Amino acid sequence: MELSEIYLKGKEILRGQKIGYTLGGVETGWVMENNRRVMDRYAFHQKAVDAPARADTAVSVLGVDLKTPVIMSAMTMPIPAIREEGLLLMAEGLRAAGSMMWTGTPIPQDLRELAETGVPLIQNVKPFADRAKILRDLEEIQEAGVTWVGVEIDAGMGTKIGDQQIAKDCRPLSMAELSRIRKAVDRPLIFKGILSEEDARKSLEAGADAIMVSNHGAHTIDYLPHPFQVMQGITEAVGGDIPVFVDCGFRRGSDVLKGLAVGADLVGLGRPVLYGLAADGAEGVRDVVRHITAELARIMVMVGAGAVRGIGPHCMMEV
């Protein structure tokens, strides 16, 4: 199936299931509408003469080699409901595409099995008010063999879809608590949900190895900006000292190139990989990532970028 067909089929299946509501956003839905509006403000600066013959989409980030800068955004909750052994199918599809898996809350019971598939794996912890639970979770997920550990900086008030509170009993993390988490983690630590220069600087100070610029797929608070609206300040704040990732609203290879152009090292997909899983299991997930990566490579050639490191602000313009 082509990418548009996967999206159409997957979305139809998901909307017919009980977990279909997770495709929506918090309260008014403004965040999701703004995501698309902001990304559509940018057009590409074509450089057709002396363009490279091909484009290499491979990247290496924090010691992990990937065939593509496209990875899965953090999530767990809807996946087991989409297909039997949905998490395992997701892992297999992402591994086949040379991508990376990122699981969230609840922490999968089969986390070790997911890691054993060979897919590079990130597991998040949520800022639950029970701080002892966070430390217990950190110990367990590292024992399971994950590649990186993530912390949901932006879920201090839990998560919400429409009017329904999803994750509860959360509380914002302090710098002292982030430092404690840093000491408890012996592998790369990613702070997810950064949307300001202040939080970017504090992430560096607290010892983050990378940050994810994200409005949490429109599932935390309403009226948050799209990452593109804050990326310049954030990348300047970290000064290239750590990798910067981005997600929220990315659907095609053109979107991914824009994310890389504004300074991201990796770009996360949320709903698209859910559509792929619903449409065709592991193969659907694999094909979503492969199609988007192929689109990315095609556009890279026409903006004069033979490798991901050659993508920058010069590749696009605001219109």
Task: Describe the structure in your own words.
It is built from 11 helices and 14 strands. An 8-stranded parallel β-sheet has the order 4-13-12-11-10-7-6-5. The chain has a two-stranded antiparallel ribbon with strand order 1-14. Helix content is 39%, strand content 15%. With 319 residues, it is of the alpha/beta class. The model has no long low-confidence stretch (mean pLDDT 97). The relative contact order is 0.20. Strand 5, helix 5 (111-116) and strand 6 (121-125) form a beta-alpha-beta unit. It has one domain (3-318): TIM Barrel, CATH 3.20.20.70. It has helices at 3-15, 30-39, 79-82, 86-96, 111-116, 131-143, 175-184, 197-206, 231-238, 253-261, 271-302; strands at residues 42-44, 59-61, 64-66, 70-72, 101-103, 121-125, 148-152, 160-161, 164-165, 189-194, 210-213, 244-246, 266-269, 316-318. The radius of gyration is 18 Å and the shape is globular.
Structural class: alpha/beta
Outline = globular
Helices and strands, in N-to-C order?
HHEEEEHHEHEHEEEHEHEHEHEHE
- Tell me the Rg in angstroms: 18 Å
What do we call the CATH topology? TIM Barrel
Low-confidence stretches: none
Q: Keywords for this structure?
A:
globular; alpha/beta; 39% helix; 8-stranded parallel sheet; TIM Barrel; 319 residues
Can you give me a brief rundown of this structure?
This protein has one domain: Aldolase class I (TIM Barrel).
How does the SSE layout of this entry go?
Elements: H1 3-15, H2 30-39, E1 42-44, E2 59-61, E3 64-66, E4 70-72, H3 79-82, H4 86-96, E5 101-103, H5 111-116, E6 121-125, H6 131-143, E7 148-152, E8 160-161, E9 164-165, H7 175-184, E10 189-194, H8 197-206, E11 210-213, H9 231-238, E12 244-246, H10 253-261, E13 266-269, H11 271-302, E14 316-318
Parallel strand pairs: 4-13, 5-6, 6-7, 7-10, 10-11, 11-12, 12-13
Antiparallel strand pairs: 1-14, 2-3, 8-9
Helix pairs in contact: 1-11, 4-11, 8-9, 10-11
